[in-house]
Amino acid sequence: MWHIQSREIFAGYNQSMNDHSLFINSSKISFTTILVYVDDIILVGNDKEEIDRIKQALNKTFKIIDLGDLRLFLGLEVARSKKGIRINQRKYALELLKDACLLAYKPENTPMDNLVKLSSTGSVPFTNVHAYRRMIGRLMYLTNTWLDITFYVPQLSQFLDKPTIAHYNATIRILRYIKGAPSLGLFLSSSIYVHLKAFCDSDWGTHSGSRQSVSGFSVYLGNSLISWKSKNNIKEFLWSWIQDNDHYYMWYSMASLFSSRFQNSFWATISFILWQWLSKIHCNKPSVLWA
């Protein structure tokens, strides 16, 4: 029923291929997006008349409640200032610490001990498997605004089947790290300076299970962090997509300049440079990649 009734309201909007709950309407002078999650909707754009039209049409059809400027959405807290928009998950993080009975514990300075090598063996099994899985699942959602745990939480999620005491202790350390600054989050600058910057790096076969390289990248639009990822050997993840490009051989030639341990993160990061080219985004300066 929702899809049938919303077709007329969203006429002229294109559904995103990456997120089917995102609808986009753009032209040379205006841009409006609609993000739908069950019965929660976010409207973003620079066309006030179009936003008012959408709200009136939705209210006429579904009887919505207009909550005004965005402040809270699915655990994400949004605060505005003249400098930009700050997004964090402070309340969600504190609830997570409270449920884990860690509010009175001393915070950690780092999310993980780099000297500890996690594996499926070498430690006593952790008996409360359900509690471990629930804790990791909640931490995964926290990675929406916490860049510095993006690598460690997915690493711990590889042991959901048979976690050990070592895995549980590593998870508790991450929670104690979060306690040090629960309001930490993302800042999206209001600066009109548009410059796409990307950073990438990779280690050399340090994954204890598969001996694959671990790669990571982060992408900034101006001074705002817009995308980041950490994964084992992510070159294959993007390989088929890049091969469909007319500029595939040019990218391959560029990648060959790097040592093999850098190629994984290079391919992942260069995809965002391609994304800029395909989207015809106008930047004040050429895109820059640091590897």
Topology (SSEs and partners):
Blueprint: H1 2-9, E1 14-15, E2 22-26, E3 31-37, E4 40-45, H2 48-62, E5 72-73, E6 76-81, E7 84-88, H3 90-99, H4 129-142, H5 152-156, H6 165-179, E8 185-189, E9 196-202, E10 214-221, E11 224-232, H7 235-243, H8 248-255, H9 260-279, E12 288-290
Parallel strand pairs: 9-12
Antiparallel strand pairs: 1-2, 2-3, 3-4, 5-6, 6-7, 7-8, 9-10, 10-11
Shape designation: globular
Strand order of the largest sheet: 1-2-3-4
What's the pLDDT, averaged over the residues? 76
Strand elements, count: 12
Total count of domains: 3
The helix tally amounts to 9
Order of helices and strands: HEEEEHEEEHHHHEEEEHHHE
User: What would you call the structural class?
Assistant: alpha+beta
How much of the sequence is in beta strands?
A: 15-25%
Uncertain segments of ≥5 residues (pLDDT<50)? 234-266
What value does the Rg take, in angstroms? 22 Å
- Cα distance, first to last residue? 49 Å
What percent of residues adopt helix (DSSP H or I)?
A: 25-40%
Main sheet overview:
4 strands, antiparallel
Characterization of this structure:
This protein is an alpha+beta fold. The chain folds into three domains: 67 residues, no CATH class; 92 residues, no CATH class; 100 residues. 36% of the residues lie in helices and 22% in strands. It contains nine helices and twelve strands. The strands form three sheets. It has a four-stranded antiparallel beta sheet with strand order 1-2-3-4, with helices on one face. A four-stranded antiparallel beta sheet has the order 5-6-7-8. It has a four-stranded mixed beta sheet with strand order 11-10-9-12, with helices on one face. The N and C termini lie far apart (49 Å).
